[in-house]
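Researcher: Structure for this, please.
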Amino acid sequence: MTQRRTGRCLCGAVAFEVTGVPREPVACHCSQCRRTSGHYAAFAVAPLAELKLTESVGLKWYRSSESAERGFCSECGSSLFWKPSGQDTIAFAAGCLDEPSGMVLQGHIFAADKGDYYALDDGLPVYPEGDGGALAVQTSRLA
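Model: Predicted structure, token format:
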């Protein structure tokens, strides 16, 4: 069964839809995600071919490292996408999805870089660095 989710930035200058069954969101606590979001960032992942921009007037890309670029809205500043170089996948911010998203947070990565002002005590798996694919679960709850 093909699933469809929609999402957008705060002002609507960037909107998208995702079809298929993306990987459930994972909370990333790396310093780049914390700086671009103001806290940690929860991203789900889909094949690039399954994400369609329905509005892109505000979309800008920033190369944040040699291995990835980040998409954001140049109008309202919303952090929306993380795209690894040379791969056919894209991560999208779970908080930008319209509800019900049907998604459930799977765990925490790069916890060694987490901010000192919060605790990770939700009972989900915690990885000091990346998870090595352990959290790559595709169990969407959207009917």
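Researcher: Any notable elements?
Model: The mean pLDDT is 90. Helices lie at 31-37.
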